[in-house]
């Protein structure tokens, strides 16, 4: 049901000809109100794509009436002319929808460093506006795919209200750099500050904790739009949990579709002195190429986990570290533990538990294995 | 000529049976004086192998009479018994050489988390002592290889004095985790503080700036031993430059032999606001898996360079960044520059120049491409 699961939203997805292969490449999501509240989080990369720079400005007003999304080009590192292209896109959408361009967000994904074909994109916006529908969520989700093998949608909610969403991305694994684009919609009656608080809390423990290859995109965008069409204002905790549930669902789908990956690795850091420590350790393990290769080879190589922990500033004593792989404590007290032959790593999901023995905080970070297919996909993309 | 190029040193390399395949695996380097001055730098990993913990203590005294090195096992994450093994190794060498065990450094490389076969190692130390020779440098360099395809030696010096050295390691690329072990020797008459100052300055801009896969070993060790046998005390700058030259030569050999690599990538960061900024940016580029894949595919994908720069805290403005690949400025002012088709990436060495347009500091960091062979070697090693 995607972004049209919540009342008050219409969407469309079409093939505008931005992609050479004729696949769908342009999505439009429209908030028909009565509210136009919105919140957004964007990439922390300091080199930001034009649509990110534009949408950050739009979100400062707290109102978003429509989102234009395209695949087939990231519009990143395209200079002032690229920014003008994004501006023109928003103006075109505003014109055909009768909206204010300052309330139209834009998101793009695809190759860096090439201009978008505006002669195809702008007519596409007009055509997409003509196809807007309360059932358009799936088509919109399809149109933002790049190297994704499947489109990603999720829904949650409470009594009488709904949060829905769509996502694209191969968990930052996609090439050049592909992008995590997410649009969430809700018919709950929540104002912009309320949306912002819920979205930041939800993304902090979901999208911020998937890290398939350590590469931070120039285009990452997560938007949450509220129409208020249900007339219901949920409790803050209940609403945040629904947003978090949709984000967690979509984040898990991103990891599951990461480019070239054959394993999804759930890294649980437990007994840390602080949540920050747990996240730092989880991320360090998630980014260790040698460990990611070992998991690919179904090799329970706990030494690489310890070595990754050792590069962090987290509170721990080396001789108190314990590591389990799929439930077998192969490392105890910083040294050899249970027999590594007991570890069964045949299945796609692999769980690595790192016990820091330093407190009671914890965190979960997801990553993927490193494979020859990843190398192949990312060495052969643009040339 | 390796570690016996300088006067006052003898060395040996033998097959002690630590490696199952019968290859050489034990090296001994002895300083016959008259001086026994030494300095060392060790891995920054907080999970340190037993020989690192031992040798750090030895170096605090500033005197090293001998170094025992083994391949075939890292003696990391082996607990108190593993530390005892290192201690016993030093005592055995001291006994057969008539030295003080507190002046015998130990270095190990190989798989993490397994005990060394002391029943083979200790007799090996005795046998190596019997084979010590002024011409033993090559044999010692051969005995510390793990996945290295070639042994690495280098020599520099001034009038009447010499700095020589040997290294093993595949630029931190080696599996599980392989280790960079380096022993440098000199017959210059320099005391321990002088050696320490020269070694830290030399490694800061050489070994510290090669980063083939971002993975920090538990065992990295670089030792510099002075015999004073030349009777000459070079000027501080001249001596430091000779040590730096040997380190730079060995570092370049490590990158050139990195596991699975098909390209050596020289990353030059120029016009940075500070040297720290330049190093941070160089390292970020060196660790970007997507860029490393692109270089493997001979794809001048400058967007991935910008994206890597964007994750740093260095001083720069995105729209003033320039990037050249093999001399072609494919990115100018943060956007498209010269035609990427002009870039020729057929040769093994690839030069990426990142111009931050923020000052006059610079740094060079070396890395390798990411290849399917790297994945294969590191997913199939211990299982």
From TrEMBL, chains A, B:
Pathway: Amino-acid biosynthesis; L-arginine biosynthesis; L-ornithine and N-acetyl-L-glutamate from L-glutamate and N(2)-acetyl-L-ornithine (cyclic): step 1/1; Amino-acid biosynthesis; L-arginine biosynthesis; N(2)-acetyl-L-ornithine from L-glutamate: step 1/4. Substrate binds at residues 146, 168, 179, 259, 378, 383. It catalyses: N(2)-acetyl-L-ornithine + L-glutamate = N-acetyl-L-glutamate + L-ornithine; L-glutamate + acetyl-CoA = N-acetyl-L-glutamate + CoA + H(+). Keywords: Acyltransferase, Amino-acid biosynthesis, Arginine biosynthesis, Autocatalytic cleavage, Cytoplasm, Multifunctional enzyme, Transferase. This is Arginine biosynthesis bifunctional protein ArgJ. Its EC number is 2.3.1.35, 2.3.1.1. Heterotetramer of two alpha and two beta chains. The active site is at residue 179. GO terms for biological process: L-arginine biosynthetic process; ornithine biosynthetic process. The record marks 178-179 as: Cleavage. Its main location: cytoplasm. The keyword Isomerase does not apply. GO terms for molecular function: L-glutamate N-acetyltransferase activity; L-glutamate N-acetyltransferase activity, acting on acetyl-L-ornithine as donor. One of its GO terms (cellular component) is cytoplasm. InterPro entries: Arg_biosynth_ArgJ (IPR002813), ArgJ-like_dom_sf (IPR016117), ArgJ_beta_C (IPR042195). Catalyzes two activities which are involved in the cyclic version of arginine biosynthesis: the synthesis of N-acetylglutamate from glutamate and acetyl-CoA as the acetyl donor, and of ornithine by transacetylation between N(2)-acetylornithine and glutamate. It is found in: Cytoplasm. The record marks 109-110 as: Involved in the stabilization of negative charge on the oxyanion by the formation of the oxyanion hole. Belongs to the ArgJ family. Pfam families: ArgJ. PANTHER family: ARGININE BIOSYNTHESIS BIFUNCTIONAL PROTEIN ARGJ, ARGININE BIOSYNTHESIS BIFUNCTIONAL PROTEIN ARGJ, MITOCHONDRIAL.
């Amino acid at each position: 049901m995607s972004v049209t699961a919540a009342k008050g939203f219409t969407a469309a997805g079409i093939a505008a000809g931005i992609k050479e292969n004729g696949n769908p490449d342009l999505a439009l999501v429209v908030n028909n109100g009565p509210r136009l509240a919105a919140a957004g989080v964007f990439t922390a990369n300091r080199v930001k794509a034009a649509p990110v720079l534009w949408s950050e400005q739009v979100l400062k007003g707290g109102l978003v009436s429509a989102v234009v999304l395209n695949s087939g080009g990231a519009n990143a590192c395209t200079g002032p002319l690229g920014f003008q292209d994004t501006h023109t896109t928003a103006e075109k959408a505003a014109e055909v929808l009768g909206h204010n361009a300052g309330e139209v967000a834009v998101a793009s994904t695809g190759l860096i460093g090439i201009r978008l074909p505006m002669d195809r994109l702008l007519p596409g916006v007009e055509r997409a506006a003509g196809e807007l529908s309360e059932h358009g969520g799936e088509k919109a989700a399809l149109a933002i795919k790049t190297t994704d093998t499947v489109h990603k949608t999720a829904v949650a909610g409470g009594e009488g209200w709904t949060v829905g969403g769509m996502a694209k991305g191969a968990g930052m694994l996609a090439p050049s750099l592909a992008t995590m684009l997410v649009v969430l919609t809700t018919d709950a009656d929540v104002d912009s500050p309320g949306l912002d608080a819920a979205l930041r809390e939800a993304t902090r423990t979901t999208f911020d904790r998937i890290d398939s290859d350590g590469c931070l995109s120039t285009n990452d965008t997560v938007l949450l739009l509220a129409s208020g069409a249900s007339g219901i204002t949920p409790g803050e905790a209940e609403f945040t949990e629904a947003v978090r549930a949709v984000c967690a669902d979509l984040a898990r789908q991103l990891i599951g579709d990461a480019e070239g990956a054959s394993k999804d690795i759930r890294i649980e850091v437990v007994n840390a002195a602080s949540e920050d420590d747990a996240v730092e350790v989880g991320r360090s393990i998630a980014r260790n190429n040698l460990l990611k290769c070992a998991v690919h080879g179904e090799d329970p190589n706990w030494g690489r986990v310890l070595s990754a922990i050792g590069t962090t500033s987290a509170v721990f004593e080396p001789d108190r570290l314990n590591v389990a792989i799929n439930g077998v404590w192969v490392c105890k007290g910083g040294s050899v533990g249970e027999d590594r032959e007991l570890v069964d790593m045949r299945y796609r999901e692999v769980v690595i538990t790192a016990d820091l023995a330093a407190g009671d905080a914890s965190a979960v970070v997801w990553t993927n294995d490193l494979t020859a297919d990843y190398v192949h996909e990312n060495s052969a993309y643009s040339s």
